[in-house]
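Before relying on records like the one below, remember that each one covers exactly one chain. Contacts with other chains, cofactors or solvent are not represented anywhere in the record.
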Amino acid sequence: MSFDGIFTHYMVKELNEYLLNGRINKIYQVSNYELLFVIRSKETYKLLISIDPKYARIHITEMDYETPSEPPMFCMLLRKHLEGGLIETITQIGNDRIIEIRISNLNEIGDRVYKKLMVEIMGKHSNIILVNEETNLIIDAVKRISPFLNSYRTIQPGAEYILPPSQNKVNFFNGTEVDFNRFAAESDNLSRQLIDYFEGLSPLSSQELLHDAILTEAGIYHAYKKFIKRLETEYQPTMIITPKKDYFYVIDLKHIEGKRKHYPTLGSLLDRFYFDKENQERIKQQTQDLEKFIKNEYEKNKNKLNNLTTDLELAQQALNFRKIGDLILTYAYSITPGQSIVRVLDYETNEEVEIELEPNLTPVENANRYYAKYQKAKSAMVHITEQIESTKEEIAYFELLLEQIKNASLTDALEIRQELELLGYLKPQVTKIRKAKKPQYEKYLIDGV
């Protein structure tokens, strides 16, 4: 992984440089997993926090993000507690991918209170948790976890905030020669052993550390010192583009071959690396139900067309009932009362045909019965033909929408939804207006009165 503890270490440095003592002006929830903070410090900056399972990260962004017109509940909660607040500190917990943003603000009666926004960047377990610093109780979180799912660590309003379980690793930046003497240079899995021992080290950074290293106990420690020095002296946010996969890190990774792109800040690096990927993911989140509806309508109309085609073939066959009626009248003289089947010569094909009769009806009544079936089939053909044309148009329409939704921006997707609502395919989305709660007055007793 590129966003490891070492990367987090330098990201916290960058956030402190730009955002420390900044005031939070506005908070938006861009998607289910993304928050956008507008912060006024030396200038106005945008802080993006994403806990997307695949793209979890935190950084200053210069990209424009479309925001929903109606903020979700968690966003409104953050606005209540954090908007107008000052960022007092931004710290990394150990060398892990956990960042604590300490924010001070004034409460309803003007007292200064402190909240902690805990950003845990841990893949699919990533989370954003708002904590009351005084009580260390959770106010709320993007992902709630009940005690039934995790007995060690409950993430719910009112629960005590507990850091993820410690793995008792050594902070990578505090490594000593004694630490490195533990490792056998001839080990086949040295990279994995280093990752298991040092906090903040990832497969990517451990491979870079060992690249061109002399594999002796002293050589591994020398490689470590060299790597630490490179982090200090060769700091350069870099993206490496390869045919199979792209990488990014705080320095150039010499063990990977590919095209290099350098950026002035970690934020600008992550903007370029993630924006296109996550933009598609964000659109997918927002339009998943819409795409599913369009696919269902498309498939439903295709099935309908198949059924209509079958009905049309049956109706066309039923047009033969008129000729059967004519044949019954032509050979009425040869039909005896109570007869259920008559065999007659078809004057068009000169072939003998067998006609079923109702025994209790006269030849004329039997002929009229077939004429009635003919008229019904004739009317059905007109209706079925109209339905087939209409269904073909529906299929073409939804096929076009499927192509559009694949490459749609969030605005395009919303326009498609509005169009479907106007055409009556979807029910208009109604925003529920909350009723204002009646104020609850406190009652006091003075001398029993």
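The chain has a mean pLDDT of 88.
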